[in-house]
């Protein structure tokens, strides 16, 4: 090693320049990585996993779904290009991360959201959700949920998924409120089969439990998403909702409504599993998922909101750095032995 350093120094001095410093990489073991597991490949896996959700939203909401997804995606791509140019960095659209943010953001919006909501949400998602932290890999919060939260607070009326009869919409699913809103505000229970299939009103990506399960299974099999997170989220909500149903058997918010209705499955598989904003260890992921599940159940049960996935994910995103510090893995080969006295 010392001979190599002396050779580098001699070469530099003969060329009349300063001796170059060797590129040393310091990281914990093991030092084996899969070169095929790139950001672009993971993002493509997510887009493939989202395909059933997109297809179901287009089947139910027709061109309204296409419009929302296209507007949100183009806005995120434009915001990403603007952010990288302002920072004088190379264009990063090729890693598909901005496209994934746009598609997830579009699917989190209702069919009836005005066009400007998707545009504003896209620029907020990339600008405040990712770029201000330093770009992909440095953001603390899920960018799509940052954009969704902003427009939900800024345009609460436009984010409702209620029907707009004046527009002459012929789709039967938009003639009534979302299933969770019906259950919470009108004590009307929706049958479980429409919830499972997705022929109900709501945000584009949350209506079909079947589509979310198909796409989520793909992500878990590809190991693009950590199965521990959705399993912990769904399992926690199932336990709490089951207890709640035993305590109040007459409640319209049954176990099936908690699991199949709203954005629980969409958030569990496609939002909470973001590798940047979720913990690194097995125990951390389980705690992270349990925290999201508890918050979702609490918000749905005791707050004025019929849904709580977005808020739950953002809160637990903020806790993730602490989880990475508190719940850390043992070193390779086991913990260091205690010093002998």
Primary descriptors:
single chain; 341 residues; mainly alpha; Ammonium transporter fold; 0% strand; disordered N terminus
Main sheet record:
none
Low-confidence residue ranges: 1-15, 162-170
Tally of separate helices: 14
CATH class: Mainly Alpha
| CATH architectural designation | Orthogonal Bundle
How many beta-strand segments?
0
CATH topology title: Ammonium transporter fold
Derived structural class: mainly alpha
Radius of gyration: 23 Å
Large-scale geometry:
globular
Order of helices and strands: HHHHHHHHHHHHHH
Determine the mean pLDDT.
Answer: 83
Distance between the termini: 37 Å
Explain this structure to me?
With 341 residues, this protein is an all-alpha fold. The protein has one domain: Ammonium transporter fold. Helix content is 57%, strand content 0%. It contains 14 helices and no strands. Helix 3 runs parallel beside helix 5 (115-127) and helix 10 (228-247) runs parallel beside helix 13.
């Amino acid at each position: 090693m010392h001979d190599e350093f002396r050779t580098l120094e001699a070469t530099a001095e003969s060329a009349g320049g300063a001796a170059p410093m060797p590129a040393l990489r310091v990281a914990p073991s093991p030092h084996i990585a899969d070169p095929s597991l790139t950001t672009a490949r993971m993002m493509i896996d997510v887009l493939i996993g989202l395909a059933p959700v997109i297809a179901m939203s287009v089947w139910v909401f027709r061109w309204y779904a296409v419009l929302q997804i296209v507007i949100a995606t183009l806005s995120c791509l434009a915001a990403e290009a603007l952010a990288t140019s302002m920072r004088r960095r190379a264009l990063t659209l090729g890693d598909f991360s901005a496209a994934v943010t746009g598609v997830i953001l579009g699917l989190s919006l209702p069919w009836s959201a005005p066009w400007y909501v998707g545009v504003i949400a896209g620029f907020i998602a990339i600008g405040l959700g990712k770029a201000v932290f330093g770009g992909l890999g440095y953001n603390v919060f899920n960018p799509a949920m940052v954009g969704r939260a902003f427009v939900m607070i800024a345009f609460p009326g436009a984010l409702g998924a209620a029907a707009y009869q004046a527009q002459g919409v012929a789709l039967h699913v938009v003639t009534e409120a979302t299933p969770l809103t019906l259950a919470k505000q009108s004590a009307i229970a929706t049958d479980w089969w429409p919830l499972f299939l997705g022929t109900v009103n709501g945000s584009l990506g949350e209506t079909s439990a079947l589509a979310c399960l198909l796409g989520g299974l793909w992500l878990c099999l590809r190991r693009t998403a950590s199965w521990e997170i959705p399993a912990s989220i769904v399992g926690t909500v199932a336990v709490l909702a089951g207890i709640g149903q035993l305590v109040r058997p007459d409640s319209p918010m049954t176990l099936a409504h908690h699991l199949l209705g709203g954005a629980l499955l969409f958030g569990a598989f496609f939002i909470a599993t973001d590798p940047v904003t979720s913990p690194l260890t097995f125990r951390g992921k389980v705690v992270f998922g349990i925290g999201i599940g508890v918050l979702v159940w609490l918000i749905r049960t005791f707050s004025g909101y019929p849904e709580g996935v977005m808020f739950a994910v953002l809160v637990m995103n903020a806790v993730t750095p602490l989880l990475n510090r508190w719940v850390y893995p043992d070193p390779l080969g086991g913990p260091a032995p205690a010093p002998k006295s």
